[in-house]
Amino acid sequence: MSTRWMVLAALFAALIAVLAQLAIPLPGGVPFTMQLFGVFLTGSLLGGRWGAVAMLVYLLLGAAGMPVFSNGHGGLGWLLGPTGGFLIGFLLGVYVQGKIVEGALKRRPSQPASGEEGGAARLVGEKIPLPSFWRFLGAMIPCLLISYAVGTLQFSLVNRMPVPVSLGMTVLPFVPFDAVKMVVAAAVARGAWAALVAEGLLPLGQQARS
């Protein structure tokens, strides 16, 4: 089981790295990327612990100089630079997101959970819970907010800029785009969860069976 988890963590770290290259430089220093989409999928499908491991692997590769950050950037200087806080924030954010998703697996599907269709989860195959779309979506919100908070603070400190100004430059312009990414990622995560668990490829779902 641990070997499968490690392989999945490596694969999702690679996924985040690939999606980070789909980037458009924007004024203010924070590029528009698809990296966040990969981060959301990581927390949704790997859970808190292993989602954080995947994110840590990605950050360590980048800090070591591998060109895995947006637009082929890498190095510790980039991670500690003005926009690196958004990446660092994902480490805690993915952990929190994953733990929220895992919460759906700790209830029986017959037990209702506020705001979720048919309770915390319905079944995939035989006795394997499938978290609802709203569970996936709701779990992504704190992940994003943590990244926003850490990223804005680091941007302000590095540039010696008031937090409200940094917020207006690095967060507010991206909120609509990030919201769309969340909705799409939640839908993809739910479909992927069902498919991967049905094929026995997702350890988190298999653990929920027992």
List the helices and strands and how they pair.
Blueprint: H1 2-20, E1 23-24, E2 32-33, H2 35-63, H3 76-79, H4 84-103, E3 121-124, E4 128-131, H5 133-159, H6 163-170, H7 175-198, H8 203-209
Antiparallel strand pairs: 1-2, 3-4
Structure summary:
By secondary structure, the protein is mainly alpha-helical. 66% of the residues lie in helices and 6% in strands.
Describe this entry's structure for a reader.
With 210 residues, the protein is mainly alpha-helical. It has a single domain, classed as Arp2/3 complex 21 kDa subunit ARPC3 (Orthogonal Bundle). It has 8 helices and 4 strands; from the N terminus they run H-E-E-H-H-H-E-E-H-H-H-H. Strands 1-2 form a two-stranded antiparallel ribbon. A two-stranded antiparallel sheet has the order 3-4. A hairpin with a 7-residue loop joins strand 1 (23-24) and strand 2 (32-33). The two termini are 14 Å apart.
